[in-house]
């Protein structure tokens, strides 16, 4: 009698686990499914096609007020032709980055809003050298003290 009760309990637990797992998988697959390719995602990916990435380098500068900043910057360019051209102008790009960063204070790099403003300024200043071929500036690392 005791053995029969144990077998019934084990079968009940296994049946419950099986129904729970099966129900969860079924709910995720059929009820909570996400569209794989909606027209909004296709339009967004078509309008924002990333260009080639060109590493500019690592920069360590003294900020206004005595703090320092160490950052690694990569830029996104419009196409491969622009990438080749800008590799030859590497020194001019680095000079612009150093000039912009050295004129900043610690408050100009601490918050996400301030970093976005810095990104926009760098894009503007770098495009003076790059003939508007730089579309984005990426901070791969950003350490300040």
UniProtKB/TrEMBL annotation:
Record localization: Cell membrane
Which keywords accompany this UniProt record? Cell membrane, Cell projection, Chemotaxis, Cilium, Flagellar rotation, Flagellum, Membrane, Transmembrane, Transmembrane helix
The way it spans or sits in the membrane comes to:
Single-pass membrane protein
Which cellular components does GO assign to this protein?
Answer: bacterial-type flagellum basal body; plasma membrane
User: Per the record, a Pfam family?
Assistant: FliL
Say where the protein is mainly found: membrane
Q: Which domain of life is it from?
A: Bacteria
Q: Where are the transmembrane segments?
A: none
Q: Which GO terms describe its biological process?
A: bacterial-type flagellum-dependent swarming motility; chemotaxis
Assigned protein family:
Belongs to the FliL family.
Q: What does this protein do?
A: Controls the rotational direction of flagella during chemotaxis.
UniProt protein name? Flagellar protein FliL
Q: Which organism is it from?
A: Desulfosporosinus metallidurans
């Amino acid at each position: 009698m005791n053995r029969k009760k144990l077998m019934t309990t084990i079968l009940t637990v296994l049946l419950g686990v099986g129904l729970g797992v099966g129900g969860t998988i079924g709910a995720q697959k059929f009820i909570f499914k996400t569209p794989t390719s909606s027209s909004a995602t296709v339009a967004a990916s078509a309008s924002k096609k990333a260009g080639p990435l060109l590493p500019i380098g690592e920069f360590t500068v003294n900020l206004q007020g005595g703090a320092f900043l160490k950052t690694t910057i990569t830029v996104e360019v419009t196409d491969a032709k622009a990438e080749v051209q800008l590799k030859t102008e590497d020194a001019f790009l680095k000079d612009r980055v150093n000039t912009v960063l050295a004129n900043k204070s610690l408050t100009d790099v601490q918050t996400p809003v301030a970093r976005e403003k810095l990104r926009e300024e760098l894009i503007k200043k770098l495009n003076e050298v790059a003939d508007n071929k730089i579309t984005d500036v990426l901070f791969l690392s950003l350490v300040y003290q």
